[in-house]
Amino acid sequence: MDNSSNLDISDKNCQENIDQNRALYIFYSSVVALELILGLLLNVTVIHLFVFKLKFWKSKTIDIFLFNLVLADILLLIGLPVKAYNFQQCSEHKVVCKVQLFLQFLNRGASIAFLTVISIYRYYSVVHPGKRRVLRILRMSPQISVLIWVLLGILTIPAMLQSFIRCNISEKDEELNTSVLLREIVFFTQIFIPFLVLVYCSIRIIRRLKQKSVGDKTKLRRAMFLVTSVVFVFAVCFLPYAITRAVQLYNDGHVMQEEKVTVVKLYDGLICLSYLNCLLDPILYCLSSSKFKKLYISMYLPFLLEKVQPESPEDTADD
């Protein structure tokens, strides 16, 4: 009886908060819906080419990692309708909340993990092509992919035990325990460490390309733009909401309720921004390959085919 009464009060407080910020949360919901539509269109068409045209399982190492990257983004996008609905309604079943959060952190973690592995593979291919033992290990892409999914599935279990994000902003703060601590460590580790790896690999790749490229300035600029764009997109999509999460954790118990609500609203907005990664991954990683780009345009955008310029067969940083 008491629990039911507490839930009613929580839902009432949450509804009041949403009513006070109705326009903001409708905007958040619209952004998520737009990202869902555009992201699914792009990722589904890309994965269609991987499966039916490129037959990625018979292709080179990078294609298997790219397929898993796009698959993770698709699985993340599938949960966005629930997120868009939650931005407008307070009532939410706890089980649905936890399942949605589990899928969100599993697939976002997988997206970041495969993005990082791709960068490491390209780093060794460009900067240390002579280290065949490392490259041989990285070429075990099916085994590495399975390992990543299994490991992330285990590490994401704490998200099912307790909600990572409050299902509504009026819920009580969590008490620090082993499950919560492990969850936060996994969350921050899977963002900040890959970012440092990306920055390091990108700097080394750019330096190496500058040394190798003698006369082809256009190709060098394109490769440098691609490498830099990957770091930029990662920084914009993931770092702001991770930093806001750290601020949120630090402020719990130290600020007034109004300030907590403000931080949560900012955090919700930055989560919307983080989903943009699902839309940009296929562009940066798949369509950056001249072969894949021509195949994609010929399949889905044939009217642009005559505008595509022939490119050099060398594609060191792109493929």
UniProtKB/TrEMBL annotation:
Pfam families: 7tm_1 (PF00001)
Compartment(s) of residence: Membrane
UniProt keyword annotations, A-Z: G-protein coupled receptor, Membrane, Receptor, Transducer, Transmembrane, Transmembrane helix
A single GO molecular function term of this UniProt record: G protein-coupled receptor activity
Signal peptide: none
Transmembrane segments: 25-52, 64-85, 105-124, 144-165, 185-203, 223-243, 263-287
UniProt domain G-protein coupled receptors family 1 profile: residue ranges: 42-285
GO cellular component, one term: membrane
Source organism, top-level taxon: Eukaryota
Its membrane topology: Multi-pass membrane protein
Protein name as it appears in the record: G-protein coupled receptors family 1 profile domain-containing protein
UniProt organism field: Cyprinus carpio carpio
